[in-house]
Amino acid sequence: MRHPLRSVVVVAFAVMAALLAAPGTATAGDTPVGYDVSHPQCGTTLPLHRAFAVVGINGGLATRTNPCLAAQLGWASRSSGAVATQPHAQLYLNTANPGESLELVTTWPGRGATPYGFCVGTNSMACSWQYGWERAQHSIVAFFTPAAWEAQVDSRPARYSWWLDVETMNTWQSGSTQALARNRATLEGMTAYLESRGATVGLYSTARQWRQIVGTVGPASDLAGRDSWLAGSTSLTGARAACASPSLVPRGRVVLTQYVVGGLDRNHACR
């Protein structure tokens, strides 16, 4: 993920070795720090010292796969675990809803039974939900294959926490309360698929972008009660303060906050 907010290949073991050899940096007061990385960090030196790490499964879009995912997830799995409340390795998914541009979309679903009725290929709540389900399914199927096993990373989706990355840089519907509802339906579809695979699902965004894309989440939504990971801070001090911010959804908790140092995303675990 970058700021503002942000074909499987078998990765050579030489790349993994380079990641393992990466020098680390200490944080102020030796605060245990997490990192998040994805395709922009392919081929770069990653920190040796990290309490936990979150890896982007996509290559910037919900329809693409991060070509360095196996190597980066292997790096993340060797985090120290110095923050007991955060798993060593976690994953995040890019999200979107391009339903207002169906003439340009080749991945929009043509059918499917959903909590909002049957999808028939139109820009509807049902097809928005189905789109989210299929994008999450595609992301998992594209990675959790023999390529992951050969890279010696755990290939079971249920072993990871998954975060839905909700940013304005991706394509969303807009301009009406109905558009925001369709965006929410997409996130609900993604959540439903991930939970069908036994995964734990959280939400990543800023308060401003969440309001712009999702609007208000009702208490009956599958998104309610989810943990929040808040972006937008520019220092560890700001990230600590952001832990007291409201959650993105009702009954949720802010458990992670993100800040940037030297162009690399770092993450503070809220106590």
Care to give the gist of this entry?
The chain is α/β, with parallel strands linked by helices and 271 residues long. The protein is built from 7 helices and 10 strands. Strands 1-2-3-6-7-8-9-10 form an 8-stranded mixed beta barrel, surrounded by 4 helices. Strands 4-5 form a two-stranded antiparallel sheet.
Order of helices and strands: HEEHEEEHHEHEHEHEE
The proportion of residues forming helix, as a percent range, comes to 25-40%
Query: Total number of β-strand segments?
Result: 10
Q: Taking strands numbered 1, 2, ... along the chain, how are they ordered across the largest sheet? A: 1-2-3-6-7-8-9-10
Mean pLDDT: 87
Can you tell me the CATH topology?
TIM Barrel
The tally of helices reads: 7
**N-end to C-end Cα span:** 23 Å
What does this structure look like?
There is one protein chain. With 271 residues, the protein is of the alpha/beta class. Helix 1 packs parallel to helix 2 and helix 3 runs parallel beside helix 5. It contains seven helices and ten strands. The N terminus is likely disordered. It has an eight-stranded mixed β-barrel with strand order 1-2-3-6-7-8-9-10, surrounded by four helices. A two-stranded antiparallel sheet has the order 4-5. The chain has a single domain, classed as TIM Barrel, CATH 3.20.20.
